Amino acid sequence: MPSLAATRMLLLVGDSLSSGKFYRCSRVARLYGTVRCMGRVSNESGPLTLTSLGFKSEMETTRGNEKNKLKNGISTVEVPKRREKKVSPTRETNAVKKKERIDIEALAPFAAKSFSELGLPPLLVERLEKEGYKVPTDVQAAAIPSILKDHDVVIQSYTGSGKTLAYVLPILSEVGPLKKDDEPRNKMDIQAVVVAPSRELGMQIVREFEKLLGPADKRLVQQLVGGANKSRQEEALKKNKPVIVVGTPGRIAEISAAGKLHTHSCRYLVLDEVDELLAFNFREDMHRILEHVGRRSGASQNGPKARRAERQAIMVSATVPFSVIRAARSWGCDPLLVQAKSVVPLESVPASASIKTSEVPSDGKLQAQAPVQSLPPSLTHYYSVIRIQHKVDTLRRCIHALDAKCVIAFMNHTKQLKDAVFKLEARGMKAAELHGDLSKLTRSTILKRFRNGDVRVLLTNELSARGLDIPECDLVVNLELPTDSIHYAHRAGRTGRLGRRGTVVTICEEPEVFVMKKMQKQLGVNIQTCEFAEGKLVVNEDE
Ligand SMILES: Nc1ncnc2c1ncn2[C@@H]1O[C@H](COP(=O)(O)OP(=O)(O)OP(=O)(O)O)[C@@H](O)[C@H]1O
C-alpha cells in the first residue's frame, strides 16, 4: 500500500517534469567494469584533495568585469583550463590503485583556482591548508566571491560537491577570529544563524565550523539542535557568547521565542537543504526564524535598500524546485542563483522546465527545477526486480556481489527497518538501525560506529537522506522506493561524494518498475536492471 501511494504521488509530480538525457551503454562492459570499480576508493579519512590523490593542478586564471557580467546575467565564474600532473610515479606503486585515483580525479569537481584567489583572508586559507583543503570545488569557487560581495544567494549543486564550505568560508571571512580585518567584535552579537532540517546535519555543520576555528575558538559556534538538553544550550549561549549558531528549526525558534537568542543584528541567515525547510512541518518555526533573524529593529520593511540593511540570505540544496526560487525572491534582495560554473540573477530563472545544463543558455536565461543535475556523475544506478519476501536476502547478496564495505540502505517504515536489521545480523552481517524514534545519543553513537567501520550496513529512513556526509559510503540501496525523484536524488547522493565512485541499487517489485522508468527520465540518469546471481552482479539487457 505505501509503495502504491508513493507511486501515485510520483506520477503526479512526474508529469510536470521534463525528460532528461538518456545514455545507453554496453551491458557486459558495464557489468565487469562495475564489479571491478566497487570498494572504497580511498582509505584516508581526511578530505579528498588533488594532493591527497597524488596530483597537483596548474592554474590559469583570467579576470573579467564581474559587475557587468552579473548585470547581464552571465556567469561571473571564469572556467580556466586545468592540466594535472602526476607528482611522482614512485609514490604510488599499485597500478590498480593508480587507475582508481585517476578516475576519481577526473570526476572530482575541483576548480582551477586557489582559496586565496577567491578573496579569503590569509589566516583562513592557512587553516584550510592545515586541515587538508587545498583547492576549492567548482561550487565553492562560484559561491564564495558572490557571498563575499554581499549578494543573497541560492546555491544549487549536486550532492557531495562541497556546498557546506561554500557558505562556511565566506562567513568565517567576516565573522570570528579568522576574519579579514581585526575590528573588535561586539561580544554579545550572534552574527550567523545556520538552519538545517535534521540534528545529524546540524551537528555535521557545527563540526565543519569547529574544525576551522580550532580548539581554542570552537566555543564561538553553538549547536541548537533538537533532542539535546535545552537548558544546557541556553547556558552555553550565555556563557560562551557564540558568534555562530547552527540548529534545527524547532529548537532555534523555541529558544528565540523564549527571548534567549538575540539574532536581530545577525548578518547571515543560512538555510541548508532549503527545499526541505520549506516543508509544511517546519512552517511555523521557519516563519519565526525568517521574521526575527537579522531583522534590525527600526529597519523599514519596505524597499530593497532597507531590506539590504538586513541579513544576507544564503539558501542551499542539491534540489531547487521553483518553490525555492519563488521563496528566495521574496526573502532575498536581488538574489543570485549560484551553480558550479554559473552565477545568474534569480530573476532570470523562469518557472518552467528544468536546469539541464550548468552552462548559461544562449538567451541568458536559466531554468530551475528540482532533480536534474542534482546527482554526481560518478554514480552508477541499477534496479533489481524481486518478490517482497526476498528483499533483505537480495540486499545481502547485492552487498556481497559488489563487495561493498560501507552501505546505507533506505526503508520507509521503522518496523520493517528493524526486521531487516534482525535478518542481516542473523546472517552474520553487521547492521544497525538509525531513525527518528531513537534518542539523540543513540543516533550519534550508531553514526559513530558506522563511520568507524564497526557497522557495515546502516538501515535508515528519510532522516539520513539529506546532507549526511560519510565519504566511505560505497553503496546506497533503496529497499523501499523513495517518494519521488527528489528523494531518490538525496538518498543516492550519500554515496559518490566529491568525485568518489558510488553505486545505487533500488530493490523493487514488478508493479513498481514503471516508477523506476519515470524516475530515470526525471533525473536524467541511466538506471539499468540487474540481478545478483552466484555472487555476481548481472546487468540485464535493455528491453
Ligand atoms: N575543497 C575541498 N577539498 C577537499 N574536500 C572537500 C572540499 N570541499 C568539501 N570537501 C569535502 O567534500 C565532502 C562533501 O562536502 P559537503 O558535505 O559540503 O557536500 P554537499 O554538496 O553539501 O552535499 P549534500 O548535497 O549531500 O549535502 C565533505 O567530506 C567535505 O569535507
Q: Layout of SSEs?
A:
Elements (H helix, E strand, L loop, with lengths): L1 H13 L12 H11 L17 E5 L6 H6 L10 E5 L8 H13 L14 H9 L7 H11 L4 E4 L6 H12 L17 E4 L3 H15 L7 E4 L5 H11 L3 E4 L1 H9 L10 E5 L1 H4 L5 H10 L11 H5 L3 E6 L4 H10 L4 E4 L2 E4 L33 E7 L5 H12 L4 E4 L3 H13 L4 E4 L5 H13 L4 E4 L14 E4 L6 H8 L9 E7 L4 H11 L3 E7 L2 E4 L4
Parallel strand pairs: 3-8, 3-9, 4-6, 4-7, 5-6, 7-8, 11-16, 11-17, 12-14, 12-15, 13-14, 15-16
Antiparallel strand pairs: 1-2, 9-10, 17-18
The structure holds adenosine-5'-triphosphate (ATP).
Task: Explain what this protein looks like in three dimensions.
Residues 394-538 form the Helicase C-terminal domain. Residues 113-141 form the DEAD-box RNA helicase Q domain. The chain is α/β, with parallel strands linked by helices. The protein folds into three domains: 2-78, no CATH class; 92-351, P-loop containing nucleotide triphosphate hydrolases (Rossmann fold, 3-Layer(aba) Sandwich); 372-539, P-loop containing nucleotide triphosphate hydrolases (Rossmann fold). 36% of the residues lie in helices and 16% in strands. It is built from 19 helices and 18 strands. It has helices at residues 2-14, 27-37, 66-71, 95-107, 122-130, 138-148, 163-174, 199-213, 230-240, 249-257, 274-277, 283-292, 304-308, 322-331, 391-402, 414-426, 440-452, 485-492, 513-523, and strands spanning 55-59, 82-86, 153-156, 192-195, 221-224, 244-247, 268-272, 312-317, 336-339, 342-345, 379-385, 407-410, 431-434, 457-460, 475-478, 502-508, 527-533, 536-539. Strands 5-6-4-7-8-3-9-10 form an eight-stranded mixed β-sheet, sandwiched between helices. Strand 17 (527-533) and strand 18 form a beta hairpin. Helix 1 runs parallel beside helix 19 (513-523). The chain is globular, with a radius of gyration of 23 Å. It starts with a helix and ends with a strand. The site of adenosine-5'-triphosphate has 23 residues, from helix 7.
